[in-house]
Known about the structure:
By secondary structure, this protein is of the alpha/beta class.
Amino acid sequence: MAAKYDLVVLGAGPAGEKGAAQAAYFGKRVAIVDPGARPGGIAVSTAGIPTKTIREGAIYLSGLGQSASAMTVASVQNPWPLLMARKLEVSEFMTKAVERNLVRHGIERIRGRARFLSPERVEVEKVAGERVVLEADIVLLALGSRPRHPPDIPMDDPDVHDSENILEIAQVPESILVIGGGPAGCEYASIFAALGVQVTIVGGKHLIPALDVEMAGILAECFNSMGIRVIPSVKVSRVARDGSGLEARLADGRTLQAQKILVTTGRCPQIEGLGLAQVGVEIDSDGWVRVDDHYATTAPGVFAAGDVIGPPNLAALAMEQARVAVCHAFGFEYKKETDRFRPTYIFSIPEAAWVGLTEEQARTSGINYEVGRSSFGTNAKARISGFPEGLVKLVFRAADKVLLGVHIVGELASELVHIGQFVLHEGGTIDRFIDATFAVPTRSEAYKYAAYDGLMRLERHTRSRTPS
C-alpha cells in the first residue's frame, strides 16, 4: 500500500524546507524525503552558514577591520579547530531551527533515497533497506547540487579538496591554490588569506564572471592588498605531486606549487538514480533540470526549485523558487513569481553584492547610461570600522536618471544592496538617494554621494554633447 500525500518533496535543503512549509501552511499533507540524517542541506552543513561563520571567525582572529583585537592569528598556533567549533555551534543551531519548522508545520520527514516509478509515485529506499512507495498529486525536486570535479584534476589526492570537503582539513595550510574565481573560490581565498595563508587564485577572465567588470577589478585589488595572488584568463592543465607537495601546470606553461589545492569550478545537480528520464523530466544542455516560469518540469505534476535547476545557486533564491512552485502547483493565490530584482551576493572579504544591470549589460542593450561612484575610502563609518576598501556604484539611464543597477564591493555589501533593490522596484531615480536622509556616520550614506557623483558626470556628459 502506498502512503498518500498532497505533496512529496525530494530534498530537505532551503528549497525543500520552504516549499514543504508553504504547502503545509495551506493545509496540505506533506512528506519530505532526504538521505541525510538531519535536514537543512549544505546550507547548514558544508556551504552557506558554515562558510559565513568561518569568514566572521577569520576576520575576528586576524584583527581585520579593527585596530585592536582581543586575539590574532599570530597568537593562536592553530586557529582552525576554533573556527570549526564555532561553525559546528552555529550549524547545530540552524539545523535545529529547520527541524522545528518542519515539526511545527506537521511535515513528515522520511530518511532515504528516492526514485520515480511514475510522475505521481515515488519509491524510497530507507537507510535500513526497507522500501516504501509514496503517492502524491505534486512532487517537488529540491535535492540541490554538489561540487563539480574536473576530470583532469586528481580529486582523490588527500591534499586536493572541493568547496565542501575543505572543511575536513585538520589545520590551516601554509599555502593554497584556489582553482576557480567564482563565489566559493573567492570566499575561501579571502578567508584563508585572512588566516595568514599564502593564497593564489586562478580563474576566468575576471573574478566572479557575473560581476560588473569594474567591480571585479576592485575586488581583485582588495585581494591583492590582502596578499592574494590573482591570475586571471588562464586554466590549470594538470595537477600532480612533486617532491615538496602539489604542482599545478597552467595552460601557458607556468607552474605553481602549493600545500593544498581547492577546486571550485562550479556545481552539478544531484539527480542521479531518480529515474527522471523515465517519467519525462527533461534536462537542459548544461545538465540542469528544465523548468518553465512556474518551475514546472516537463513531467506532469513534477516541479523543481533550487540548485537542481542551475545557477546562481543561492539559498535565498532557492527558497523563493520553491514557494512560487508550490503556489502554482496548488493554485494558491499567494506568491506568483520570484523577485524581478533579486540581489546576488558573495561573502568574500570584502563582500560583493549587486542587483539590476551591470555597466556591460546596459551598454550591450544599447542604453544611454551614466554611472555614479562613492568610495568607502572617504566614508566615515568605513574608516571607523577599519574596512575602507571598496565602493558603491550606481548605473542609471542618462535621459531620466532612472536607476538601472547597483554594485557594491565592501564590507556589509550584502546588507547595503537592498537599499538599491527597493529603489529599482519602484522604478526610482538616483534623486531618491539625494532626497533621502541617511544616518551619519553610516556606510549607507555612500549611496547619496554616489548619486551626487552621477549627477556631476551626467552634467559633463550633457555638456560634451551640446554644440558650442
